[in-house]
Amino acid sequence: MSGAGDASVSVVALPPWARVSDRRRAHVERAGRLISEWADAMAVIPTERDRWLRAVSMHDALKDAPRELLLELAPRAWDDDSLRHGPAAAVLAEREGEGDRGVLDAVRYHSIGFAGWDDVGRMLYLADYLEPGRRRGRDERARRTALVPENPAGVLREVAAERLGLTIAAGYRLLPETVEFWNGLTCDAS
Ligand SMILES: [Fe+2]
Ligand SMILES: [Fe+2]
Q1: What is the CA(176)–ligand 2 centre distance, in A?
Q2: What is the pTM of this model?
Q3: What share of the chain is helix, strand, coil (3-state, %, to 5)?
Q4: Which sequence spans correspond to the domains of the chain?
């Protein structure tokens, strides 16, 4: 896809409370560019596009934060340190004035999926996985990226199936939220 404009101009404004490395910042920027391209191609209204970009900008904003801060903000977080940054960012975002439930849920559940998502959660899940900086399966990722504007639900099922498959293959448990998310996607397909 094209149309992302000048690559030197940032499309994502990280929140002032972000604690991110340069590497993470680059990932967020790539995901922001991708979601912007999809918003253009799908001709979504500016307020919806803004929701998508806010979710992207906040989803990994605490990924590099100290564990003590993450534990303080998200003490439960499925008892998994690798999943703590999403819920922690949602807590801080709300505290700092973000009032959109869909955006907060997108950020909170971006690592695991959530059956209650509206478009913002689904688009963030896609952009987080399909952004071009990831090494895995470049050709397949490019195919899916191009297909998103015309068939976001179909690509979401493919991406979710792949992510769940990787989780299972690695021997990890599926969280109840993830199972519900998947079951919701399969219901949509029937
Ligand atoms: Fe993340
Ligand atoms: Fe991410």
Answers
A1: 21
A2: 0.94
A3: 65, 0, 35
A4: 22-189
Q: What is the pLDDT along the chain (190 residues), one digit of tens a residue?
A: 444 456 667 889 999 999 999 999 999 999 999 999 999 999 999 999 999 999 999 999 999 999 999 999 999 999 999 999 999 999 999 999 999 999 999 999 999 999 999 999 999 999 999 999 988 788 999 999 999 999 999 999 999 999 999 999 999 999 999 999 999 999 766 5
Query: What's the 136 CA to ligand 2 centre distance in angstroms?
Result: 15
Residue 46 C-alpha to ligand 1 middle, in angstroms?
25
Ligand that lies nearest to the alpha carbon of residue 57, given by its number in the listed order: 2
Class of domain 22-189: mainly alpha
163 C-alpha to ligand 1 centroid (Å) = 13
Give 63's contacts (C-beta < 8 A, 6+ positions apart). Answer: 19, 20, 24, 85
Amino acid at 151: N
